[in-house]
Every structure is written in C-alpha cells, then in structure tokens.
Design a protein that fits this description.
2 copies of one chain form a homodimer. The first copy, chain A, is an alpha+beta fold. Chain A is built from 8 helices and 11 strands. In chain A, a hairpin with a 5-residue loop joins strand 4 and strand 5. In chain A, helix 3 packs across helix 4. The interface between A and B is medium-sized, with 29 and 29 residues. The structure holds a DNA duplex.
Chain lengths: ~230, ~230
DNA sequence: CGGTGCTTTGAAGCCTATCAACAAAAGTGG
DNA sequence: CCACTTTTGTTGATAGGCTTCAAAGCACCG
C-alpha cells in the first residue's frame, strides 16, 4: 500500500490515508504474465499495483489487441473517471508484479466517510484521464517516431509517480506491446527505436532505457504534466 | 432546451427536467464558424447545442489541429466526465448553430438538489466518454477506410440522439475537419471516401450522406452503442 | 540441450503524405 | 444580382512511411 500512498501524497502531502486499511483484503504476487478478465458486474475488487507493471487492453474481432492504458507502481488499475471510458476492461499484469486487493464496497464506504480522501482518488483518476487523452491525441495524429517518444515520456512519468526509478528506467513492455499501444507493428517499433537511438534521443541497455533531452522533447511534443509535486 | 431533454430522456424517459429552467441564461445563434476559447478558470457557462454542430479541438505547436470530440443537437459541450480529460478545451461551433447557455453555478445547485437529475448528466457524460474511447481506439489502430467508417458510424449516432435526422444525414464537417479528427490528410480523406462509395458502403449527395449496411459495418468494427432507447 | 518467445534485419509492396493544378462551391462586397 | 475572392473538394504524379513476409540471432527456461 506504500506506493499508493506516495502517489496520492503528490496531491496532498500530509493527507491521512489510514482509513484505507479497513478495505484491505490481501496482497497478491503474480508469478507470470496474468490477464484479469473483467465483466460488467459492479462488485469487482479494486486493484492497486504495488510493484511491477500492468496494462489494460481490448481485443478486436480479428484478434488484434489494443492497449489502452498502462499502470506503474501505486496505480489504481481500472478505477475512477479514467476507467469509466473502458467498458469490459481487461487487465494484464506483467510477471513479478505485486497487487494489493481492496474490497470495493468497504473502499467506497471509506471514501464516502472521508471526503478529502475521496477527493484524492478523484484527482488521481482525473490526472490519469488527462494523460490518456494527451497520449491518444498524439497516437492519432503524429508519425511513428513522435508516437514512440510520446509513449516513452508518458511511461517515464508513470514509473516516477510513486518511486524514484533512477536514471535508467525499466522498459516493462515488449516491442509487440509497444506496437499494440501505438498502433504500429513490432517490426516498425524496432526500427523506429533504433532511429531514436542514432538521433541521440534514447539509449537502451537490455530491458532498460534512458531518454536524452526530455525537456526539449516535452516542449516539441507539447507534453504536459498533470500530477503535482 | 428541447434537444437536451430528448437526449437525457434516453436514459429515463419520464424524468422531470424543469429544474434546469432556473439555470437558463440565454439562447444564442452563431452566424458563422465561431471558436470559443476556454481557459482554465472554472466558472464557464455550460453550453448545450440546440441545433447545428460543434467540435472540440486542440492545436499543436506546429499549427496542426486535432479534433478530439464532436457535438450534435442536445449535446452538453465540454461538461462532465468526458470533458475532464480535455484541459484547456477549445470549442468550434459551425455556422448556423444555436446554443443554450446555462449558468454554471446555478446548474450545479439544481443538480445537487435533484440527485436523479445529476445521475442523468453523469450517464450522458459517461456514455460520451465511452464513445470517445471507442473512437480513439480505432483511430489509433485501424487503416484509413475503417477509421472513416468508424467516425461516420459515430457521427450518425451523435446526430440521432436528440432528433431523427432521417435517412440522409447531414455531413457537417469539411474533409479537412474529418482529417483533423482521424489524423489523415484532407486529400486522403477524399480518396478514401470515394473508395467507400465504390464499395457500396457510403452514398453522398452534396453535404449529406447515407450509409450502406450499418449493422454489418458495426459488427465488423465491433462498434458498440452506449445510449439506450 | 532443445524449445520458445523476443528482437533484429532485409526485401518487397501497399498505404499515406506531399506537391501542384484545377474545378466547384461558398462567402464577400459592390 | 453579379463579379470577386476565398475556401473546399478532386485528381495525378511522386516520394516516403509503414506493413508484410521471411529468416536468423539472441536470451531465457525447462
């Protein structure tokens, strides 16, 4: 639960989050990539990613997969205003992730009793919805190199919200998953990342990466931050 | 206000919407295409499109324009969960549109007093957010012909929510605007629409269009409806 | 050790953008 | 209402971007 606390404290550093303890159910570790299929019923538990990585996806009739959002440490997976848009949300947790499970009904009670806590959850959800909208905008109208740069900036932010990952960030997605996120093929993702590297915007070492002049990149792509702190 | 009433009655046909009268400010007619620039302050009036057409857009540093959402008769423009995602929303009203203006504070009071009315506004906003997510998903991962078919299906739904536009629907967007919506160039939009016509999926007469087998198209694109009625 | 999935590279071809020219339509001002 | 200007839509030629198909290297794991 520590990562969720750190994420929410970005909006209000001193906020008391102990009421969340009443809704705590369990801490699960996921040994391998594991999809969680969600249907439309309302009483799903609320999942918070403690460590690792996860993403939400939808499948097209022809078998293609689209990744709609991604979750780093401390993320509320499929909750709040960001999740409203995704009906029948499917979640995939990458191998090694740890997840805190909250009881939905008791969490709702806790939020209802403490309006300042509810506000934090709302702010977090709204910030996520804005980031998703910003990402989608670029993924619709930019060429491949910019699409990937945008996604990497966003990934960098997601990974930095609850923990300090250091200079070299993990790249928890395969090239195929980056393709499903950007609408590109894995082959073209590979070529485009290579081009970003020769242009000095990106360094890669195995499953880690480091970005070049992020400030310049952010202003070129009009990338905005919606979290404070 | 009649079109808003018809739209909200899709969720609850008998709902009493008279409390909205207290928040009514004025009815404006817009003679020509008119952008409404919104900044971050909170007390903007709430705009409901009475007739005509509008869309929200953002501008990139290089001058490119991205259209993020579109509004037909009865639409709440830039309000609720669908609008949270779009910070610094800009609205463009097409020539000839009529807009009902509501006072934001008094509208909030009216909704707070009548929870069933607030629920209707929330349902409308959620349905719009889902439609936007569905559209964005396709605009990221589908080829041009499917992108345009998807946008036309969505446009058809938007135009049918508050009024019955008949078999031949108005096409209130220029090809450039369709391009800004889909991430394609106007030239390619022109060519792709022509191809859709020769394939029998689309007919055009001036600024009106009619779609072929919409049921088949919807199932091929996995298009879903989020409004009831 | 083989198997499996991930990544890279090459070659070929389709898809989409760009540039340019023109036709058609719509707005503007007399 | 007409002449004028501006915008919108269409078409062709060309170039570049992206996908597809195929093959091979690599890392990881049983």
């Amino acid at each position: 639960m520590a990562t969720l606390v750190r994420r929410l404290h970005r909006f209000s550093p001193g906020a008391d989050l102990t009421p969340l303890n009443h809704a705590f159910q369990q801490l699960r570790s996921l040994d391998r990539d594991e999809p969680v299929w969600r249907h439309k019923s309302e009483d799903h538990p609320v999942l918070v990613l403690e460590s690792g990585f996860a993403y939400s996806f939808t499948l097209y009739p022809d078998g293609r997969r689209h990744i709609g959002d991604m979750f780093g440490p401390g993320a509320l997976c499929g909750f709040g205003s960001a999740a409203v848009a995704e009906e029948g949300l499917n979640l995939a947790f990458k191998s090694g992730s740890r997840v805190t499970v909250f009881d939905a009904a008791r969490l709702a009670d806790a939020l209802h009793e403490k309006p300042e806590l509810e506000l934090l959850f709302k702010q977090d959800g709204d910030a996520r919805a804005r980031r998703t909208a910003q990402r989608n905008r670029g993924l619709i109208s930019l060429p491949a190199a910019e699409k990937l740069a945008l996604v990497l900036l966003d990934l960098r932010e997601e990974l930095s919200l609850a923990t300090d990952p250091g200079e070299w960030l993990p790249l928890p997605l395969t090239l195929r998953e980056l393709g499903d996120l950007t609408g590109l093929t894995d082959v073209h993702v590979s070529r485009t990342l290579k081009k970003l590297q020769t242009d000095g915007m990106l360094e890669r070492r195995g499953k880690r990466f480091r970005m070049g002049d992020t400030a310049a990149l952010e202003s070129a792509l009009d990338y905005r931050h919606f979290y404070y702190g």
